[in-house]
Every structure is written in C-alpha cells, then in structure tokens.
Specification:
15 helices, elongated, Rossmann fold, alpha/beta, Beta Polymerase, domain 2, 3 domains, GluRdtase_N_sf, EC 1.2.1.70
Length: about 400
C-alpha cells in the first residue's frame, strides 16, 4: 500500500544561503518531478519551492525519504550531502505528512504567521503536478483536504484577519530606516511582478507611497499590473539607467545576475536608501549594503511588526488547530476506507463478470435495454448487503471480512 511522505528543507532548519542552493525554477521543478516518476521512485509527487522552503511531497509503496533527499541534492549538483542531511526534516507516515502539509499550507509554519502567499504557492505547485499528470490518490486527497481546511479557517476563525504576508512585513521593515510620514515623498521601484512583487505593489499605496514604478522581464506583465493598480511601469531593459534615482528598491526576481554596487551607484541625495532583497537566490549583491546612505535588507531579516494582527492570529491558533484535528480525522477515516472501497469494487467486478457471462448464454433475449436494466438491478442488490456490512464494521473484524471475501471469491 502506498504511503504519503515528505522531505523538507525550510527556514525553520536552514539559513538563507543553504535554502537558496535548493531553490528550483518552475522548469527545474517539473524536470525533477518527472525524473522521480521515470525512475520509478514515486507514484505521485508535488514539489513546493519558495523563498522559505523546498519540499517534496510524494506517495510510493517503498521509497525511503533519504532516497528522495539524495535525488534532490544530486539534481542540484550539491556535493556536501552530509552537511545538508542535518538540515532536512522528513515525514514518513501518511497521517503525519498530511498534518505537516496542513500546517505549512495554512501558514502556521511561515516566517510571518498566517502568511497568505503560501496557499497560492501550494495551488500553483499542485497545478504543475496535475499538468504533468504526476498526481496520485493520496496526494490528491491531501491537497483537497488542505484547500477545504483553508476555507474553513478563513470562514470560522480570525486567523486570516488583517494583512500580514511577507510582502506586508517587508514594507513595515522600511519604517525602521525611514519615518513613515516620509513615505509619500519617496520613489519606489519594484523589480519583478510575480506573486511577491504583486503583493508589495498592492500594499505599498496603503503605506503612503505615491511614486511607485514596476518593471518585469516580461514588460507586458508589469504594464498590466501597473494599469490595474494605477502605478507606473518601465521597460526591464531600461530600469538600470535610472535605478540610482529611487529611494526604495524592492527586488523580487529569483534568477539572473545580482545587482551590483556599481549598477546601483550612490543615491542622488543624502537621504537614506533602502534595498529590499526578497529573492531566493539573492538578487542584490551583499556588498551594496556598504554604499553610502544605503541599507540592505534580505528576506531573512524581515519579521512582522503588525502586533495587533500577530496577536489576533496567535489567539486563533487553538481554533485553527481544532479544525486541523477535525480534517485530519476525516482524512484518516477516508484512508481507512480505501481497502474497503477496493474490496467492494473487486467484488462488484466479479459479480458483473458472472452476470455478463450468464447473459451471453441466452442469445434469445431480444430487448437489450431491459436486459441491461435487469443486470444492473441484480448487481446492485448483490453488492448492497456485503458493502453495507463492510462499511459499518470497524477494526479487526472488518479486516477479517475483507480477507474472507478476497479468499472466497478470489478477487484480491
């Protein structure tokens, strides 16, 4: 029987420099998952790769988590496996993996408690799995449980009250270096309009920023977001020419060469300039923090200062955990019913084959529709009682019944 398992390296165990070595692009994530399937290591797999974590959720009958972990390190050409091994966390039982998946997907294990971005990242990752036809029964049920739990938490608790994503926390961090009352006079450049850049752009105006410019490798994407939010956009090919004129520079790109001190230059005025590097791998060279009037902050330096939101979410954790418990129990019940469903399906197929074989002997039956209806009604009656008994029996007696049916009818 397959087991749902997980391998994780996240901000809870690894610093930024370790995490960024395992950061995969969408294309790399797809290639890695396909390779696991082709090698026969998994029956279903989903890879979640963000700035804070790289995690592989997979189902198989016998592949240990260490094998998946080694495959990931080899895929990234990482030689010092021994050092990385201590940074991984593994979940080897289906129920434990499901619980961990729920906690991560709900934002209970995020750097910013209740981070809203993570559920979108899970949806995107699962969609990639479905597009590649790499899903499995356990993985599908686990993700459906996550999405249902997320909806319940949103509707039944205060855990989602307020705005406390990483993007929001990053904007709050600026106020440690620039008085918030001065935001209205500062020029902001957001490089990259993916999920993180979009998040920053949406929140920035509520913080008081008025002069906000977007740029993205795909110019049309930046222009579309700028039009939607009433902001400005400049071509990606041109932004370096004016980058020194901005007071706040937020980089949300996850690939390509790092911005250098030479490219950024010295600010035009003797005002404090803040560089926010929200990318993994880092997209702004660390030595830029030594430039005059410049402060560099990366994603590991960011923590939420929204105390009211943080307090409300902490007070809601008990309610969230109760929902997680309920949904985990529901998943466990479904898991326990899987062998029953398989046995009932096998028994039904056996009865159907017998009926079809007997009906074929009576070639004088003229009304085909009537014969089909009669066969269906007979099959339903034959299966109803044993199926009902199996579903209402629990524990060891249920297993005895299934073993007996499998042996009697030779349907296993």
């Amino acid at each position: 029987m397959n087991v749902l398992q997980a391998v994780s390296l996240s901000h809870q165990t690894a610093a930024l420099e370790w995490r960024q070595a395992l950061q995969l692009s969408k294309e790399e994530a797809a290639a890695f998952m396909v390779s696991l399937k082709q090698e026969g290591l998994v029956d279903g797999v989903m890879l979640v790769t963000t700035c804070n974590r790289t995690e592989v959720y997979y189902e198989s009958a016998g592949t240990p988590t260490t094998v998946i972990q080694d495959a990931l390190l080899q895929f990234r050409n990482i030689a010092n496996k021994a050092t990385y091994t201590a940074l991984f966390v593994s979940y080897t039982q289906t129920e434990a993996t499901l619980r961990y998946l729920l906690e991560v997907g709900l934002g209970l294990r995020s750097q910013v408690m209740g981070d809203r971005q993570i559920i979108g990242q899970f949806k995107e990752s699962y969609q990639r799995t479905k597009d590649l036809e790499l899903g499995g029964t356990l993985l599908h049920q686990a993700l459906q449980t996550l999405f249902r739990t997320h909806k319940r938490v949103h509707n039944e608790t205060s855990f989602r009250s307020g705005a406390s994503s990483v993007g929001y926390a990053a904007l709050e961090r600026i106020s440690d270096f620039v008085p918030r009352k001065e935001f209205v006079h500062k020029r902001m450049l957001i490089i990259g309009t993916g999920q993180m850049g979009t998040d920053i752009a949406k929140y920035a105006t509520s913080f008081g920023f008025k002069d906000i410019t977007l740029t993205n490798r795909t110019d049309e994407k930046a222009q579309a977001l700028a039009s939607k939010l009433g902001l400005q956009a400049i071509p990606f090919a041109d932004y370096l020419a004016t980058i020194h004129t901005y007071d706040i520079i937020v980089s949300c790109v996850s690939a390509g060469a790092q911005l250098t001190a030479e490219q950024l230059g010295v600010p035009m005025q003797e005002n404090r300039r803040v560089l926010l590097d929200l990318s993994v791998p880092l997209s702004i060279s660390p030595d830029t923090g030594a430039l005059p009037y410049t402060t560099l902050v990366n994603i590991d330096h960011i923590s939420s200062k929204t105390e009211a939101v943080k307090k409300a979410r902490e007070e809601s954790i008990t309610d969230v955990q109760c929902i997680v418990e309920e949904e985990t129990k529901g998943f466990t019940n479904w898991l326990e019913d899987l062998p029953v469903a398989k046995t009932i399906g096998n028994l039904k197929s056996f009865f159907a084959a017998v009926l079809e074989s007997e009906l074929q002997k009576h070639t004088n039956l003229q009304d085909g529709d009537t014969v089909k209806k009669l066969a269906k009604a007979t099959l339903d009656r034959l299966i109803r009682r044993p199926a009902g008994t199996l579903r209402t029996t629990e524990g060891a007696p249920r297993q005895v019944l299934m073993d007996s049916l499998n042996q009697l009818f030779q349907i296993a």
